[in-house]
User: Which sequence fits this backbone?
């Protein structure tokens, strides 16, 4: 394994509370040394002057679409898009075809990832067979095969009795149960946050209360069972407050928020651009501000992309028929840096939410630059301005609300296991 | 100044609306001639692109186009071989290749006319999209009120019924408000959409209060799929509380008129008697609709030198994947 010396960058290691200018030496897939003016010797030198050097970003929530929907994305293209966005590891949801609800599918995903993806891939297995919300999956076997969490994601488990058993049983394997908290009876046919914007646009509303009711239920079940509940893509003020209070009571709950819920509002749908359709929907400015505050105060542990590729012909359907979701790997860092510029997060705390916390939630290596830690590293230039063009990106799909946006802050190098896999000038190198 | 497309009343200025209404006054006279046809749009092709079934609105546009000598082609993807999951933009590009001079679009989902206008060379006229807008209906409503009352400024217009799902309500709210009327909405609470006040109206759950002092009472159609008990318990209870009959009409001004975008569920939104007789002006609305749509087609499809704009070129790369 070659040696890499990252020279002159600002080291941001939340685990060690380290924020200082230093060199970082990677050797044999591990962090070998950290300090001022390390000797280069035979190491490949990466000049990080003016850049931040962080433990690799870990995405708790993505859709890689393989097996079954390779026309939208596959593990190879998704993995390349991930490292181009600074993510050295991504957790992929189970809504593939077939559903990842048995060890063979989990095996397949891990095998494909080993061959095709420069990023580490952590499969999230279905919590119930076929995502039907009825019979729980073989969690012990799935965890042995490599599943890191359980979730029916967008197919929310509506049966409270099933959710109770899923949470109880998950204690056997000690991995989180991830909830996409939307009460489907309240969502109805809603496609956009219910409020003045949906009223003006004449689109069926999906009310904030659909999330709030479901988060309240799942928190009560988590408290009752003592299992680890992870709330996916929190989007409402009241959900943030419910999670904050539950955590104060000692409930084992973690939570994530998506870049789009931190930076956009339902006003973005004004032109009926189906790339702004996502579940849960973009919310009001008040909800967005509450999510930002919740991320800043630690109620929300992590930023997770919910990278959800869809083909252009699918997004060209009308707003109610078009599938919800947006790609996010390659824009997540840039758009969430807005929170650093707005002084809601220090650079160190921002990195904690993109790297250290998600790695901890999944109990995977990473999130640290301590000597001996796995050499997953993201180098980012926080000042670099660029114009986002998904046709020049690595995802197979282009369904982004930021097409053409001028962004500030760009990942310039990504290292996975001590190997340079992405460089902004040369692109993905594998 | 009137833009290229007529997608909604929200985008119009008061002067634009008045110009359309004034133009419609001239069109009324054509409809009264023995030969109801002028050569104004000869050689122009107007496509009625109706994804959602409609008899009345489509016929109104078709007659309006034909009275102006346009070639009117009806294109109904919902009833043709096209499947539901076809990209609306593919449909638009296909249609655009045939180079129409104007396209009249109706769709059950809000925003489709706007997205079609984004890729189409021809001007797009919205003939109703989901619960968003139905601009020509609102314009003909204003036209009818102006002919009845001589003005719109200072009038009070009460819109009663399924505001939540109504594109007519939204367009009427914009149109009457922009022309200086006070607009109120009244409905059972589940049918009043969140944030409707942001459109500049006051909402009521008491019909009596909503109608107090009203010059115009606009009853909205309850779509059959809403009659199932999800938004109110029964048609009997609805008609007892929000159905307009002569007794309830007494809450309004003595000379109030009653309107309805049609078709009427008799005995639900309106009593039989009111559906057929004054002060309801429902057939005047239909009659005026033709003149108003002639005015719209003239203004949007009849521009000198043709109404088409430069084709929007979509590169092969963008079409891939």
Assistant:
């Amino acid at each position: 394994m070659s040696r890499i010396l990252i020279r002159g960058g600002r080291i941001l290691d939340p685990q060690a509370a380290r924020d200082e200018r230093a060199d970082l030496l990677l050797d044999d897939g591990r962090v070998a040394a950290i300090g001022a003016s390390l000797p280069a010797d035979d190491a490949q030198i990466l000049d990080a002057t003016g850049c931040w050097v962080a433990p690799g970003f870990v995405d708790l929530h993505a859709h890689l679409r393989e097996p079954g929907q390779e026309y939208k994305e596959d593990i190879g293209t998704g993995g390349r898009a991930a490292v181009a966005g600074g993510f050295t590891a991504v957790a992929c949801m189970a809504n593939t075809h077939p559903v990842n609800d048995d060890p063979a599918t989990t095996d397949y995903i891990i095998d494909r990832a080993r061959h095709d993806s420069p990023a580490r891939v952590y499969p999230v297995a279905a919590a119930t067979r076929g995502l039907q919300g009825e019979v729980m999956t073989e969690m012990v076997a799935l965890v042995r095969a490599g599943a890191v969490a359980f979730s029916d994601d967008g197919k929310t488990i509506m049966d409270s009795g099933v959710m109770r058993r899923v949470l109880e049983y998950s204690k056997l394997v000690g991995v989180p149960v991830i909830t996409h908290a939307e009460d489907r009876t309240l969502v109805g046919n809603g496609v956009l946050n219910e409020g003045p914007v949906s009223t003006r646009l004449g689109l069926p509303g999906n009310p904030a209360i659909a999330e709030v009711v479901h988060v309240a239920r799942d928190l009560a079940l988590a408290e009752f069972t003592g299992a680890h509940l992870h709330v996916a893509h929190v989007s409402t003020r009241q959900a943030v407050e419910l999670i904050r209070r539950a955590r104060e009571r000692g409930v084992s709950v973690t939570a994530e928020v998506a870049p789009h819920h931190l930076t956009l509002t339902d006003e973005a749908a004004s032109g009926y651009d189906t790339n702004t359709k996502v579940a849960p929907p973009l919310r009001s400015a008040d909800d967005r501000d509450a999510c930002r505050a919740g991320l800043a105060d630690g109620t929300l542990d992590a930023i997770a992309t919910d990278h959800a590729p869809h083909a252009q012909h699918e997004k060209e359907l009308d707003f109610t028929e078009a599938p919800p979701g947006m790609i996010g790997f390659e824009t997540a860092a840039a758009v969430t840096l807005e929170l650093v510029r707005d002084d809601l997060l220090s650079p160190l705390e921002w990195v904690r939410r993109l790297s250290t916390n998600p790695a901890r939630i999944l109990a995977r290596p990473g999130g640290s630059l301590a000597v001996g830690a796995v050499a997953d590293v993201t180098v980012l230039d926080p000042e670099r301005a660029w114009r986002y063009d998904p046709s020049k990106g690595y995802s197979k799909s282009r369904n982004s609300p930021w097409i053409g946006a001028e962004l500030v802050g760009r990942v310039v190098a990504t290292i996975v296991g001590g190997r340079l896999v992405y460089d902004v000038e040369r692109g993905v190198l594998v | 100044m009137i833009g290229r497309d007529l997608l909604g009343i929200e985008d119009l200025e008061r002067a634009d609306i008045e110009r359309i209404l004034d133009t419609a006054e001239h069109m009324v006279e054509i409809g009264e001639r023995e030969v109801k046809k002028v050569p104004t749009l000869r050689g122009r092709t107007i496509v009625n692109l109706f994804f959602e079934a409609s008899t009345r609105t489509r016929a109104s546009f078709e007659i309006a186009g034909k009275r102006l000598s346009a070639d009117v082609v009806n294109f109904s993807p919902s009833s043709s071989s096209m499947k539901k999951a076809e990209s609306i933009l593919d449909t638009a590009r296909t249609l655009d290749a045939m180079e129409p001079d104007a396209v009249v679009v109706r769709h059950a989902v809000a925003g489709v006319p706007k997205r079609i206008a984004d890729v189409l060379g021809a001007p797009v006229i919205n003939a109703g999209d989901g619960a968003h807008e139905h601009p020509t209906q609102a314009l003909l409503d204003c036209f009818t009120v102006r002919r009845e009352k001589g003005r719109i400024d200072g009038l009070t217009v009460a819109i009663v019924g399924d505001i939540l799902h109504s594109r007519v309500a939204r367009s009427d709210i914009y149109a009457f408000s922009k022309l200086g009327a006070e607009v109120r909405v009244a409905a059972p609470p589940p049918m009043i959409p969140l944030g409707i006040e942001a459109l500049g109206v006051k909402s009521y759950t008491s019909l009596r209060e909503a109608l107090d002092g009203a010059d115009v009472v606009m009853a909205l159609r309850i779509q059959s799929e809403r009659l199932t008990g999800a938004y109110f318990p029964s048609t009997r209870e609805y008609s007892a509380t929000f159905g307009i009959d002569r007794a309830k009409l007494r809450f309004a001004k003595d000379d109030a008129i009653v309107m309805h975008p049609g078709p009427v569920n008799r005995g639900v939104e309106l009593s039989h008697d009111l559906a057929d007789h004054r002060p309801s002006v429902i057939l005047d609305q239909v009659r005026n609709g033709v003149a108003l749509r002639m005015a719209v087609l003239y203004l949007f499809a009849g521009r000198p030198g043709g109404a088409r704009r430069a084709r929007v070129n979509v590169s092969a790369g963008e079409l891939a994947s």
In short: The first strand of chain A starts at residue 4 and ends at 13. Chain A touches chain B at residues 71, 194-205, 207, 271-272, 311-313, 316-321, 391, 396-398 (CB under 8 Å). The two ends of chain A are 15 Å apart (CA to CA).
